[in-house]
Design goal:
binds magnesium ion, 15 helices, two-stranded antiparallel sheet, alpha/beta, binds thiamine diphosphate
Amino acid sequence: MQRFPAYDPPEYVHWQPDEQLNAAFVESCSRDANRRTIIESLSSDAKLDLYRGLLRTRLHDITLKRWVKQGVISKAWLGTGEEATTVGPVHALDRTLDVVVPMIRNAGACCEMGMSVANMLRGYLGTYDSPSHGRDGHVGDFSHRVLQPISNIGNMPPVAVGIALGFRLRRENGVALTWVGDGSMKHGGTHEAFGMAAAHKLAAIFVVQNNQIALGTRVKEHHPEGTFDDVHRAYGIEGWAFDGNNVLDAYAATRLAAEHCRAGKGPVVLVAETFRMGGHATHDEREARELIPAEMFAYWGARDPIGLYEEYLTNHGVTVETLHTVEAAITHEIEVAEREALASQEMNMPRGETALDGVYAPTQ
Ligand SMILES: Cc1ncc(C[n+]2csc(CCOP(=O)(O)OP(=O)(O)O)c2C)c(N)n1
Ligand SMILES: [Mg+2]
């Protein structure tokens, strides 16, 4: 894809394919026989759809980053480098039946569930026609089966489990999927959710998104090495890992997890190793570069989930022209969405008298 020196991490601006990493990508698609079968049975269009999702997520974030630099908004929480961990699982769901509960780094999940990019951007601008009518920067829309999260980390996993319980009580075959950051794995709510889902064998998938850091605390400072992979054992439930920068592995692992849930076998904890290629948000990118060794940025930068997937596709029969056509279409989608969102900011900000609409509080 086109790289943007003003907005991309430098490792992406100068990204070059690497034969060894290409081979490792293919290897992680075939390590597990069940996942390999799922990946091999993907249609060309489904594979391109995953590419569309990755591009849409990256370009949504690049728009936000440009807005920060232009002073349109003051800061943005980006998922740069973590797109595969967000997009692959959503595509593996039944999007007419299942529900996702994203955190702020999973904005791509909202779009992949069918929310428009314009509405995502309106969420940042706080316009009245944004999904929350300008009430919160956290975006969701239950008509697209996306629960709008609150910012308190560790508080959404119990809600996802509540949704899974709702599926059970209504005899619906849906699955609730949420993402849990490495830092959020420290919150009691997360573990209450694991315990409740395990006790009742609920159809919930928890994607532990280990991006190696929580705000400014590196994972090695807050968690013993390698033990996210085992955490499911404490609850007697299934769990396995996937390559967080490989959208196909993310897709296949989640497909298997969803099948497990739908068969009534209980929840699954999926652990994805990935990396936050920037700051917690746009305000602390410089601090992140001071905190995290340059070698680590170089290591993960070489594993850009989009660059790696483009290499996979072109090595598996997709022409470069096809990728360019897809990219042009998604770029156009984002440009139109940006214009629509900025038009809403001009014409449709919330009026003061709507402040109490939908607020549950006694009136005088
Ligand atoms: C209950 C609670 N405590 C503290 C915070 C402040 N806070 C926001 S994000 C964050 C770190 C989250 O780290 P992680 O779960 O690894 O997610 P990441 O930001 O890396 O995606 C913290 C501590 C919060 N939002 N909620
Ligand atoms: Mg984290």
